């Protein structure tokens, strides 16, 4: 899928809400972090929501960078490697405990495990399986509506 | 995103129109009574697609899979026996063999409306190797674009054609006319030459889809004049016609070849010439004639420039990748006629793929001095001894080059007025040409001005270039067009509109290879 700006944002929000939530629900109990399960879920879902919200800003930057490419495309590898800057930013905020509604600071290893798993799952889904139910998605630059 | 699609497999096959009453031939809209009075057998079919190449196949695939229409509602009228026939012929003669890779994206699968699994994933599973997936992961920065093998693509189309029962819908015939029906819909008149006695028949249909590809091969005028005047189809050849004799001759004795053109086909021809020379220790000399010599970025769009060097302009596929679903597709769709024309100009021009192996070959060829690029145009060709003398118009005068062969890689002829059916819809069907000289279509690929009551005429493929969507003559372009056509038919209430659940169910059936 070669994205447009609206397509990027819609795809990010949708996939984090769908795939991100499923993965978060599944792995939160197994993350290396202490505390009641409710607090742990609160923390992981706050992180997930933060990736979605801050991601809108990131998508603006990616869209701008994409303008430097003649093909106006976004290679598969870029979609994976952008995990690094985004992870560093959200991770720093999560570990410092400065994200809103966070019950406490998040251990770095727990964050890294959760964030990477969600990111890779979303990336894999976007690079193939997404096309099976959403047949128009790839021809509309990632827009779902 | 593949290079070229259907062109007639042989020349001189224009269907005869003898025997058609003048009343029918000259009347824009036919009535049922006019056809009956002419004594032409007639039958009904909701949707007819004319062409029978990849364009028809992809549209029929969408109608069957997404539209959920039975085979009894669709007819393909074609003189081809199978949809990949012309494509395979053109690919093979232009130096793409079965095991070679075509210029097409991994997810451009004419056999799979979802594009998933991609060709790369299928190859990884088939070969039990992660190589194809790693290739896609690092393309295009650290590897050339992944492209599928011709044989794999053809086999996959064959399998899907069987799955959707393509041959149940195929009617062999040469279509002569598509005329609007008084009261709505269309008549498609064709000659069945495969019957015991060639016979004309008429199909009365609601919608008609035309995917007739290119009119034929395109030659530079000077080269065509030489061929016609000298009756020499041996020395001056088109890259899209069988020209194996050139390579065989060069293998027997040294010779000089003039290659004209800077597109992907010229790259294929150069690859073959250079490979033959290197592998068989030949002494082939190559003069490469380019009308425009590109020695740096040649086009600018937004903040990016298209790369170029050594005469070539480089692009992964025949348009920037975002025309098939990204920013360029969205932008082109929004633009008015003037803006669209400007954007077509901004992203147009002949390009080839930047491939590491081709770069290596040409670097060696240049360094060793047996490959020379000349920027100019062919001013004339004359016989000279055993070969041909080519007069080239260059910036500071004329240059004479003696060659044994000239390979014209100019491409295919897309003049819609030279096609019997397309010209007829321009003259009698209400269709008009767009600014690119092709058929004017709307964003659903319905021909503007050719609607007929409840019926619609759709044109996809090369004949629809210049409209709201640019990448029409490619695998992915045909799928995008097919999706628009079938969604339009669904909007009009004549077939199903595919939603997420039915799409996923259809994909599961495809994965299991279940016939529908």
Layout of strands and helices, then pairs:
The complex is a heterodimer of chains A (145) and B (516).
Chain A: H1 5-27, H2 37-66, H3 76-81, H4 83-95, H5 108-126
Chain B: H1 22-26, E1 29-30, H2 32-37, E2 42-50, H3 54-65, E3 74-78, H4 85-93, H5 119-127, H6 131-138, H7 150-163, H8 166-169, E4 170-172, E5 174-181, E6 186-192, E7 199-210, E8 216-217, H9 221-230, E9 236-238, H10 244-252, E10 256-260, H11 264-279, E11 285-290, E12 300-301, E13 304-305, E14 308-309, E15 312-313, H12 327-334, H13 337-347, H14 356-368, E16 371-375, E17 377-384, E18 387-394, E19 397-403, E20 405-408, E21 412-413, H15 420-427, E22 457-459, H16 475-491, H17 500-512
Parallel strand pairs in B: 1-5, 2-3, 2-7, 3-4, 7-22, 9-20, 10-11, 10-20, 11-16
Antiparallel strand pairs in B: 5-6, 6-7, 8-21, 12-13, 14-15, 17-18, 18-19
Helix pairs in contact in B: 3-16, 5-6, 11-14
Structure notes:
The complex is a heterodimer of chains A (145) and B (516). Chain A is 63% helix and 0% strand. With 145 residues, chain A is mainly alpha-helical. Chain A has one domain. In chain A, helix 1 (5-27) runs antiparallel to helix 2. Chain A is globular. The relative contact order of chain A is 0.21. The model of chain A has no long low-confidence stretch (mean pLDDT 97). Chain B is an alpha/beta fold. Chain B has helices at 22-26, 32-37, 54-65, 85-93, 119-127, 131-138, 150-163, 166-169, 221-230, 244-252, 264-279, 327-334, 337-347, 356-368, 420-427, 475-491, 500-512; strands at 29-30, 42-50, 74-78, 170-172, 174-181, 186-192, 199-210, 216-217, 236-238, 256-260, 285-290, 300-301, 304-305, 308-309, 312-313, 371-375, 377-384, 387-394, 397-403, 405-408, 412-413, 457-459. In chain B, the strands form 6 sheets. In chain B, strands 1, 2, 3, 4, 5, 6, 7 and 22 form an 8-stranded mixed sheet that branches. The longest helix of chain B has 17 residues, at 475-491. Chain B is globular. The two termini of chain B are 27 Å apart. Residues 1-17 of chain B have low confidence and may be disordered. The A-B interface holds A 1-5, 7, 66-73, 75-77, 80, 128-129, 131-136, 138-141 and B 66, 107, 113-118, 121, 136-141, 299, 301-307, 315-316, 320-322, 324-330, 479-480, 483, 487, 498, 500-501, 503-504, 507.
């Amino acid at each position: 899928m070669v994205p447009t700006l609206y397509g990027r944002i819609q795809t990010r929000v949708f996939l984090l809400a769908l795939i991100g939530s499923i993965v978060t629900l599944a792995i939160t109990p197994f993350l290396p972090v202490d505390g009641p399960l409710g607090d742990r879920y609160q923390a992981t879902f706050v992180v997930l929501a933060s990736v979605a919200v801050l991601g809108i800003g990131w998508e603006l930057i990616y869209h701008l960078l994409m303008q430097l490419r003649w093909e106006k495309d976004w290679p598969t590898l870029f979609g994976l490697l952008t995990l690094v800057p985004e992870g560093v930013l959200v991770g720093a905020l999560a570990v410092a405990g400065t994200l809103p509604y966070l019950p406490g600071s998040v251990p770095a290893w727990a964050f890294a495990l959760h964030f990477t798993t969600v990111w890779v799952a979303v990336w894999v889904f976007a690079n193939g399986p997404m096309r099976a139910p959403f047949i128009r998605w790839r021809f509309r630059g990632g827009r779902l509506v | 995103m593949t290079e070229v699609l259907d062109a007639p497999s042989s020349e001189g096959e224009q269907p005869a129109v003898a025997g058609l009453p003048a009343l029918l031939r000259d009347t824009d809209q036919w009535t049922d009574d006019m056809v009956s009075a002419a004594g032409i057998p007639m039958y009904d079919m909701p949707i007819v697609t004319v062409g029978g190449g990849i364009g028809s196949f992809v549209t029929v695939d969408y109608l069957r899979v997404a539209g959920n229409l039975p085979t009894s509602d669709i007819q393909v009228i074609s003189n081809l026996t199978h949809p990949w026939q012309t494509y395979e012929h053109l690919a093979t003669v232009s130096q793409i063999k079965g095991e070679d890779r075509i210029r097409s994206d991994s997810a451009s699968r004419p056999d799979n409306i979802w594009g998933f699994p991609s060709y790369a994933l299928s190859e990884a599973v088939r070969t039990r190797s992660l190589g194809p997936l790693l290739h896609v992961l690092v393309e295009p920065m650290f590897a050339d674009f992944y492209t599928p093998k011709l044989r794999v693509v053809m086999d996959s189309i064959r399998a899907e054609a069987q799955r959707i029962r393509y041959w149940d819908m195929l009617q062999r015939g040469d279509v002569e006319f598509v005329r609007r029906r008084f009261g709505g819909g269309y008549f498609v008149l064709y000659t069945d030459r495969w019957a015991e006695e060639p016979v004309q028949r008429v199909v009365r249909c609601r919608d008609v889809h035309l995917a007739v590809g290119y009119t034929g091969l395109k030659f530079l005028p000077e080269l065509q004049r030489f061929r016609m005047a000298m009756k020499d189809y041996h020395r001056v050849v088109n890259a899209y016609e069988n020209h194996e004799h050139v390579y065989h001759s060069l293998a027997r004795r040294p010779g000089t070849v003039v290659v004209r053109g800077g597109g992907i086909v010229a790259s294929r021809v150069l690859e073959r010439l250079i490979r033959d020379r290197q592998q068989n220790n030949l002494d082939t000399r190559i003069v490469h004639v380019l009308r425009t010599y590109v020695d740096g970025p040649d086009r600018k769009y937004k903040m990016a420039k298209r790369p170029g060097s050594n005469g070539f302009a480089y692009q992964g596929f025949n348009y920037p990748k975002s025309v098939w679903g990204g920013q360029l597709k969205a932008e082109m769709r929004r633009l008015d006629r003037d803006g669209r024309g400007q954007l077509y100009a901004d992203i147009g021009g002949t390009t080839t793929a930047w491939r590491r192996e081709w770069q290596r070959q040409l670097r060696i060829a240049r360094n060793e001095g047996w490959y020379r690029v000349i920027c100019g145009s062919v001013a004339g060709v004359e016989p000279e001894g055993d070969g041909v003398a080519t007069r080239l118009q260059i910036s500071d005068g004329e240059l004479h080059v003696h060659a044994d062969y000239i390979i014209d890689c100019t491409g295919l002829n897309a003049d819609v007025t030279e096609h019997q059916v397309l010209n007829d819809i321009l003259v009698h069907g209400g269709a008009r040409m767009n600014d690119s000289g092709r058929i004017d279509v709307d964003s659903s690929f319905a021909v503007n001005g050719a609607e007929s009551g409840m019926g619609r005429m759709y044109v996809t493929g090369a004949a629809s270039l210049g409209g709201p969507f640019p990448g029409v003559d490619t695998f992915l372009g045909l799928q995008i067009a097919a999706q628009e056509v079938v969604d339009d038919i669904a909007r009009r209430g004549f077939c199903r509109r595919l939603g997420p659940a039915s799409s996923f169910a259809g994909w599961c059936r495809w994965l299991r290879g279940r016939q529908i």
